[in-house]
């Protein structure tokens, strides 16, 4: 259980997919990649982002030399630790078999190293599949820098992995209630905090105010940053905020996007958290792999 904090709630813990221990420095990719292949480890990822997880808790790392003595085409360098290079490779096989799990299922149970490796692998391999042609001239692009760049074969343009910023905001009343909403496609009684993509020319704080107004029709104040988490589905970076709204203001859920929005008490959220993923009658929370779960944990166990 989260230890109560004072002076403004914070995230309940480090976001699950923000954990990482490997060295990701650019110099490794540019000049040291070939030296990191011998003696390295590689994880195989299928087209749906699944990989083999051993004992339900750790990634199945294979020796890189099982695939040859030099980096194989398509392999991307994830980083290095204690002189060992970690790589990822897309495989054609269907991972729908025993022991293969995706990031949503396994991210919360992996240790810091494996969580960071799989998060990076899913995002980086997905980017390569969507950046095979130049956005400027349309010519084919080739991989470079151990998978961290693509170079156009036509105009020599360089392209790097994309990240799309998205705000995610826990709206509360400044006391003991939090505003949660649900999308029509979610499981019954599943509620979460509000989120939306940052638009061109927009600050993060402006995005928070706009998205909350668009989704539930209320103004917010006291916008405060909490933390961030990569969310490679396919390439988001979730930027967590808290904000305050007037609980007496009418809620106007966005048609087709928000099925329902409701205020919940701190006691209700605590009970749902204590139910360990099952939820309680009327409230199921987002999975623990999400930053939303950490935000709700921090708020629920805060003492005003």
UniProtKB/TrEMBL annotation:
Cofactor(s) the protein requires to work: Zn(2+); Mg(2+)
Known catalytic reactions: a 5'-end NAD(+)-phospho-ribonucleoside in mRNA + H2O = a 5'-end phospho-adenosine-phospho-ribonucleoside in mRNA + beta-nicotinamide D-ribonucleotide + 2 H(+)
Known EC number: 3.6.1.22
CDD domains (UniProt xref): NUDIX_NADH_pyrophosphatase_Nudt13
Family annotation (Pfam families): NUDIX, NUDIX-like, Zn_ribbon_NUD
Keywords in alphabetical order: Hydrolase, Magnesium, Metal-binding, NAD
UniProt key word Cytoplasm: no
Keyword Hydrolase set for record: yes
Enzyme class: hydrolase
PROSITE patterns in the cross-refs: NUDIX, NUDIX_BOX
Entry-linked InterPro entries: NAD-cap_RNA_hydrolase_NudC, NADH_PPase-like_N, NudC-like_C, NUDIX_hydrolase-like_dom_sf, NUDIX_hydrolase_CS, NUDIX_hydrolase_dom, Znr_NADH_PPase
Nudix hydrolase domain residues: 161-287
UniProt family annotation: Belongs to the Nudix hydrolase family. NudC subfamily.
Protein name: NAD(+) diphosphatase
